[in-house]
Amino acid sequence: MRSALLFTVLLGCSGGAPAPAPHTPAPVVTVPAAPRDAAIDAAPPPALRGEACGSGRTCAAELACADAPGGYCTSSCGTAGAPCADGVCVATARSGPQCLRGCTTDAECRSAEGYLCDPQWHACAIPNTAVIVPRQCPAPRGIVRDPAFGPSVALSSAASPGLYQLEPSAVLTDAGELLALFGARRGVADPGQLGSALVTARGVIATGFPAAQGDRAEVRLGRDAKGILYAVWLETEGRHRQISLARSRDGGKTWTSPDRVDAADCTDQDPACLDRPMLAIGGDLVHVLYAAGGGIRVATSHDEGNSFRTALTALSGHHGNATVGADGRLHVVALDPGTSLPGFGSADHRIVYAASAPGGAAFGKAQKLSGRDEMLPFYASNPSVAVDRKRGYVYAAYVRGGRDAIWDLVILATKDQGKTWKRTRIGDDPPSCAIHMVPNLALDPTTGTLHVAWYDNRGTGRFAHATCKPGAVSCTQQGTINGAPFAALSMEREAPRWLGESAALVVDDKRRVLHAVWAEPVDEQGTVVARIFHAAATLPKK
Questions:
Q1: What is the CATH number for 406?
Q2: CA pair distance 314, 312, nearest whole angstrom
């Protein structure tokens, strides 16, 4: 109206135009507004990276709501996903590389919900969920390659199943031939287990090993006194998991169809329940152990693995090792995480040990082997156990350390059925620097020497060897087993450089040879991937 009125006045002043007729305004009609959806008015905007989600709040486009306290909007990154321009690409222990919210102080994170600014990655995360970045540690002074070991031989390659291979298990046939069984991973974009491969020490693939029905993980080998070979693994297909076992009577050339070992320990509604199978064989008994429902379960067969008696719980825990003594008692050592979240160091974790009655029919009360308030990592820390049947010693080894990335190996020995334990340490001389992880034990029955092998990040990384006198009164580092330096050592799980949770040491007492089988990161045309290697050492005659 103001613009129309001004136009009329200007015309009147310019001379001669008749005045307009009086204007009668039209009646005002009020149209009621359409009713709004109250839920639309109340809906919060999509959550951005690092913000809370779930309970009615969705994440912004290209983000997913992670299962974390209060929810956490994130996305995959690195070679497995999209770029991470608005955050920090962090290698996590359980979810692969994740693009998280960047930070410099805890105040920038949801600290009230437990998120803090990780000092290594500078990203908002729940403490202990991001992978440790190993230090750059110099090679140890005066300790180069163990002169007892011959050349390293690659047992896997780009032609082997999967993008990379890891977690070997090994056994000797009656003829003295070494067989190695290892897992194979698809790759970063699809990190599930592809299956496995069985090879000789010459790198020849055994084609008769059963093909995987689904995804196959954590393969283990064993041999009984009759020369029968046994293999167990975790088979996964969709939400279904089971522990499978196969047998070979001809040195690994042909194998039976897999049989299921576990019975009603877990249901398909809880696929995370079943995990980490192990083998322990003594006399005519075959013990298959596995994690289920917070404990280590033991299923025992009296008929070469054709049937198993109802499994019983040996002790609490998630992963570990087992062996059988001369008296038929089963010795089990495990890491028990308790109620703490898995991670790279917690004082709430503990190492536990239990021994059975002869035949594994019942277990005594479990003992805590780790020290009070010791920091114990969950990952890369599978404890190990060995028995000296002639001298009566029982040995255990575990990893201690936290997010400072300085981890030692603790070696324990008992000769009085666990009443007292002798403790010694394998690690760095001060100043400490390296991560020592994945301990492996093998006992030389002739000399009583305990052989220890592990991964550490000395130099660019290595698979190292030490010997301990009977009773573990002292241990001496002998040097590196691998012939060439590692291309790079990484703590990132579910990635091509990942080495897994196990390696293998096998003593051939008849031929006086120590076999070592391990995973090693190698650079293949600019990409670092894990491959399986073997080397053998000559043992002293006495």
A1: 2.120.10.10
A2: 6
